[in-house]
Write a structure and sequence with these properties.
heterodimer, A: alpha+beta, 60s Ribosomal Protein L30, Chain: A, Alpha-Beta Plaits, 2 domains, six-stranded mixed β-sheet, four-stranded antiparallel β-sheet, 11 strands, 34% strand, globular, B: mainly alpha, 2-methylcitrate dehydratase PrpD, 13 helices
Amino acid sequence: MKHSTLFDIISPIMIGPSSSHTAGAVRLGLLARNIYKNMPEKVVFKLYNSYAHTGKGHGTEKGLLAGVLGLPVDDRRIKDIFNSDIAKQIEYKFEYEDNFKRHPNAVDMVFYGKTNMFIAGDSVGAGEIAIRKINDFNVKLTGKYNTILLVYKDIPGMISQVSSLLQYHNINIASLLCDRNAKGQQASMVVSIDGNLQYDMLEALEEIPGVYFVSYIEKLGN
Amino acid sequence: MEFNINTFEQLHDICISKNKTIYEIAQENMARQAEITVEEVRAFTNRSLFAMKEAIQAGLASRELSMSGMCGQDCWNVQQHFRHDRAIFGKTFEKIITYALATSEENIRMGKIVACPTAGSCGIVPSALIAVSEDYDKSEREQINALITAGEIGRIISVKVALAGAVAGCQAECGAASAMSAGAICQLMGGNVSQVLNAMALAMKNLLGLTCDPVAGLVEVPCVKRNPFMAVHSITAAELALAGVKSKIPPDEVIDAMEQAGALMSPTLKESSQAGLATTKTGLEVQKQVFG
C-alpha cells in the first residue's frame, strides 16, 4: 500500500469544491491532453455515475474542459471556463450515462483532430486519477511518472528489447503494463520510469523492428 | 538515517530520543523522501499557508452563492452580526468561525483553497491556525512549524485510515482536520510532543462515527457549517492538552477505533447520500430543486 506524504496532506492548492470531482477532473483532462499531444478540434466527454449525477454542482465539466485546455488545478479561470476565450479554441460536448460496471467517477474522452483518440479514466479519490484505456488498449497512467507508451506487433522479445535499451541508458522502470488485442496482432506497453527520457531515446525505441508507435507522456505538475 | 514512522508511538519515541519536535522530525523525513532540502519542505508549506490566507481574505469579502445556490452568504452574515454583537467567547472565537466559513464558502463557489487534508474540510486547520497566530503574534516561522505538525498528524492517521468520506465517513475528513488542527494549535502555543499528540487524540476521540451524508451529494450541507464547529472543537482539545489533560486511550488506539468505526459504518452514510441528512424530507426536496 502506498502511503501519503506530509505534502499530500497539506496540499494541493486547488479550485474547489471537490478533490475528486473538481481537481481530479482537471487532472484527467490534463493527462489526456498530454497523451493526445496536440490541441484537438473537438472533444466529447461522457461522464458516468456520480460524475454524471453531481458533476454540475461540483464543476466537473468545467474541470475536464479546463484540463484539456491545459489549465492547472489552481487556475482561477476554471470557474468561468465556458465563457473564457481559451475555450473558444475547440468544440466540446458533454454526455451522461449510468453504468454500474464503471467507476463511480469515470469519464470517456474522445478527441477529434488530425487523429482521433479515445481516452477513458477514473478519478479514484483525493485528486488521484488513473487513465485506464487509450483507444483499444488497457493502460494505467496516474500522471505521477513520466511514461512511455508503445504500440507494437505482438511477437516474442519486445519487452526485453525495450527494457535493455532503457537499462543501457540507466533508466529505472517504476512499473510496466502490457496488453494486446489478439495474439500476434497489435500490443501495447506502458512503461513508467523514474526521471526523464532523452528525446533521442524515443527514436531508438521507434527503430526497434515491430514497433508501430511510440509516445512519451509527461507526468503532471501537481 | 531515515525513520519509517507509521504510528504516533514511533513518532513520539523518535522525538524523545532525538530531543526534537514533531515538525523537525517530519520536515527532515519529508526532505529525505522527496530528495530536497528542509528549507524546500518549509517553502512548500509556506506556499500552502499563503494560499490559506488568500482564501480567507477572498471568502471574507464575498457573498457569492455556490452553483447549487444552497450556501455562500453565512460568512458575510456572521461578520455583520459581530459588528454589533460581539461573540460570547471574544475576538479570537469570532475570527475562527468567520475564517472557517470564509474558506469553506470560498471552496464551494469554486474559489482557490488548500485541501487540508481534503477540500470539504479545507476551512478547519487554516481558521484555527491563522486566527490564533494573529491574536497571539505568532511568527511565520511558528505558523509553518504548526502546519507541518498538522500535516504529520494527518499523514500518520492516513497510514491506517484513508482520508476520504467514502472510506470512513466524515470522521476521516473534518474529523481528521480537527485532530490535525488540535495538534497544530497545541504546537503553536508551546505544547510538548506528548501534549500535541494528546490534543490530537482528544479531538479525534470526540468525533468518532461522524457520518458523511451530504445533501444532493454536494460538498455544501452540512460540510460548510461543519468547518467552524470542527475548528472550535480543535481549540477545546488543544486547551485541555496544554493544561496537562491526557487521553486515557493512547493516540494509536484512538485511530484504531476510528478505523473500526469507519469500517462498521453503513455505506449509505459514506459519501453516497443514501441516508442521513441527504434523505431527510428537506434534503430530498433540495436535491430535487438543484438537479431537477
